[in-house]
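Exercise 7.
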Amino acid sequence: MIRLLLVEDQEIIRRGLKTLLEIKSDLQVVGEADNGKQAVELVEMLDGSDRQPDVILMDIRMPVMDGVTATQQICEKFPGSKILILTTFDDAKYVSEALRYGAKGYLLKDTKSDELAEVIRSIDRGYTQFGPGILEKLIANVSTVDSNRPTEIPPGLQELTSREREVLRMIATGASNREIAQKLFLSEGTVRNHISHILTRLNVRDRTQAAIVANAYLDWLNQEESA
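Solution. The predicted structure, written as tokens, is:
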């Protein structure tokens, strides 16, 4: 059973999500919060209990405390937390912040229930998940903010092998280990080894942060591929 914490300020949406998700035999809603502060308090209260959430579904825009700040606080206090951001296209700039703080992925709020359930299962198994459309917008935002764009290539990125750079580019698109393995004709074990080395070289916590780095230096990675 995958235990869920729903964090959404609009009660009608929260109730709808709960109804749709609890139809699934392997999903159980163990808590609800209507703002980020309440979510942080619930995670603290439920920690170590039989109602400790496995996956947290987090809205972005909420009163009292928004989802970005809540994600930051939860991931700092409980590094193993698995947070899935539920978002809209208008929230793209906030999604990137939540990912930097440790969120494991994001989906649009209008995602069909079956797809949402599959994504929750994937997040619970340790995968990251990027919903369609928003990733492209995040990349566009990174590439258009030239003043904030890093100009020097980090040494760790330069030290990656050509194969690791290929894996990193696929991570940036949200590809799973299996998809990377099939595309590059590798075993999943080899892909995991490459990812472990990439995370070490880039000094990042997980593949979500690696994807952010890859998107920030995507032009350079593409040039290296064609060189």
